[in-house]
Every structure is written in structure tokens, then in C-alpha cells.
């Protein structure tokens, strides 16, 4: 049970990290395009 819970927690942590990285990438890309234009 504890292994299942920790695995689920690690999965959601990974999802949150990937979402944060993707959000930062998209924000930086859009900001860069805005500054170029």
C-alpha cells in the first residue's frame, strides 16, 4: 500500500514538474516572439 501511494505521489510530482517546465517554455517562447516582433 505504501509503495502504491509513493508511486502515485512520484507520478503526480513528475506530472507537475513537466507541466511547470512546459509552461515556462511556452511563456518564454511567446515572450521571445513578442520581443522579436
Plain-language structure description:
- With 37 residues, this protein is an all-alpha fold.
- The protein contains 1 helix and no strands.
- 95% of the residues lie in helices and 0% in strands.
What sequence of helices (H) and strands (E) makes up the elements?
H
DSSP helical segment count: 1
Low-confidence stretches: none
Gap between N and C termini, in Å?
Answer: 54 Å
Q: What structural class do the secondary elements suggest?
A: mainly alpha
State the shape: rod-shaped
Task: For the structure shown, list the relevant keywords.
single chain, 37 residues, mainly alpha, 0% strand, rod-shaped, membrane, Branched-chain amino acid ABC transporter permease, transmembrane
Question: What's the topology here?
Answer:
Elements: H1 2-36
Keywords: Membrane, Transmembrane, Transmembrane helix
Protein name: Branched-chain amino acid ABC transporter permease
Transmembrane segments: 12-36
Brief digest:
This protein is mainly alpha-helical. It has one helix and no strands. The N and C termini lie far apart (54 Å).
Amino acid at each position: 500500500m505504501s509503495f502504491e501511494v509513493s508511486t502515485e505521489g512520484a507520478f503526480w510530482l513528475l506530472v507537475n514538474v513537466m507541466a511547470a517546465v512546459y509552461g515556462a517554455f511556452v511563456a518564454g517562447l511567446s515572450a521571445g516572439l513578442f520581443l522579436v516582433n
